[in-house]
Design a protein that fits this description.
The protein is of the alpha+beta class. The protein has ten helices and ten strands. 47% of the residues lie in helices and 20% in strands.
Amino acid sequence: MGNKLEFKDFVQNKRKYYIADLELLEDARNIAHTHDFYEFYVVLKGQFKEYFNEEQLIVDKNTVHVIRPQDTHYLTSTNQYDRNIIRNIAIEKKYFEQCLNEVGIEDCESIFGCFKLDEIAYQNYQTKTNLLLQLNNTEQTNHFLFQNILHDIFICGLIQRRNEDERIPKWLKFAYNEFSKDAHYIDGLNKLIELSGKSQEHFTREFKKHYGITPSEHINNLRLQHAAILLKTSNEKIIDIVYECGFRNLSYFNRLFKEKYAISPREYRDLNKKCF
């Protein structure tokens, strides 16, 4: 998994983000790591090879990568350019999720991963982050600038994902959409493959290629979303919810739930009860 970086080690005040440029010289690399915060970077110069969740990516100028806390990654230079620089922003987890809500982004999963900024968006990113780096800004100005930068990134990501969606095979779209209906996800991977009409190997490869996650990860996300709804809206025992949502192992469910929501199922239920 690599080292886990903690947000508190980067900031010495109450600021909710940390911004810095990282330059990698020839044959240099940073360490493999996860975080307790969100991160995104934009390549300003050169080209990098990124090892990301056991995949290898080539990222070059204008590429943005939005990274979740649980993702594991590190960067190396490809040695194709004299200078290789990214502008990196680390964002406190709660603050990032607050900003998501404030700018009204509902399809937040679509902004995680790599995509390209067009030239106008890239220039806007440089201009606004340069302003953000100035030391004499008020916190209100910084908050406004940061939300603006996030909004720009989200819009570019959503547009690119929509364009990619148009290239998804019809059979895969059908399986993806149907699987979300009528609690098919409780039946698991075999049902998803059955809906596609393809072999498991072909289906798994195409699913990961177009949606950026494995079929099993997608199934677990749907099950966890349903479990979260039941925790908020019912008095069912947690163990009954676990089985109702298709999980067969309580400790496995607890681990996945805490990874997604940052608190245990019981804490999630108690917290949401206090909201009513």
